[in-house]
Design a protein that fits this description.
Radius of gyration: 22 Å
Strand content: 15-25%
Strand order of the largest sheet: 1-12-11-10-13-14
CATH topology of the largest domain: Rossmann fold
CATH architecture of the largest domain: 3-Layer(aba) Sandwich
Number of domains: 3
Shape: globular
Distance between the termini: 56 Å
Length: 428
Amino acid sequence: MTVASSPAAGCRDLPVLRERGQREVFCGLTGIIWLHRKMQDAFFLVVGSRTCAHLLQSAAGVMIFAEPRFGTAILEEKDLAGLADAQVELDREVARLLARRPDIRQLFLVGSCPSEVIKLDLAKAAERLSAAHAPHVRVLNYSGSGIETTFTQGEDACLAAMVPVLPVTQARELLLVGALPDVVEDQALALLAALGIGPVRVLPARRSDDIPAVGPNTVFALTQPFLGDTHAALTRRGARAIPAPFPFGEEGTTLWLQAIATEFGVDPALFDHVTAAPRARARKAVAAHAGTLRGHSLFFFPDSQLEIPLARFLARECGMHPLEVGTPYLHRDILGPELDLLPAVPVLSEGQDVDRQLDRARTARPDLTVCGLGLANPLESEGLTTKWAIELVFTPVHFYEQAGDLAALFSRPLRRRALLARGLEAAE
């Protein structure tokens, strides 16, 4: 079993700069954009304001003829002022929704900043509505509020809300945790099947009929690094996590698969046979972009919680030099294997004080800055080349076949900058 070795010194023991100040992030409602596509018989009902509705409609880009699997129960002024019984109104709207959409099997009541400010008890509402509409529909709730969270925590909160109601099993099974595009998930399942690993379940499942069970013999592998609450919820149910780097790039994918293969006793020769061809394709695809990336400096603002695995990929497989790697939350149990691989960086930061971090970025003048949409244009106007962090969540980037696409997301801004510079020189 041939895999890349870790460096002599990683970042696990590196001092962390912890900041608690003003932040620039999307709210957790954003996770609905990919979750409603993944769970084909689920519906996400946001209990929020017109601003919440506008965010989802603009971010999702839903065509006028489409029938989306999300909506907003809008809190009007009378609800916010306590002049109407919001619970009664919610019951009425849910009944209307389910009557019009009999295909719904799972309904998520999603809390927002407005519903949390007025202390609307959606947990109690979910219990009441689940009992009223059982067994055809199961109603759950979670918070997508942006008051204290970053946007990827919407998925974490959703999956964590599902864990307590998963059926019980005593079977030894592998559970893959995290929402992936169907084509990427299929690739992962095909690799695991070729290794003889099974049965394999997925959370979230595409349909409620395929919902996984969990028990003391369940082992699970995260596919996303931002699932801290889900990790804890599964552990409370008796499941055991397989620690591993995340499947970004050739190296991360190989080490992720190797950790699972070791858990299930896969023969090293079989592992090498199954992974040799896709590994070679991934290395070739990454190499096509590594020439553009190699030697360039990199600065991560905290946004998606993908920052540490991506910094590891860009440093080790693409030859970039991270100057600062900022992440909203640093979950050491989950990210420990990544920290062991990440070469020592000048600054590893958790949380954000956006003004201080902007000052550090301006001083460092990195070749590429990964940040949120709200910061990208101002930094571009100051001559810094940026990459929108949210694109890394919406684009298929996991596993071998997407390794080249992942590298391309970072090489493209540098190539654009080089083309613009040549164009200006020609014009002069």
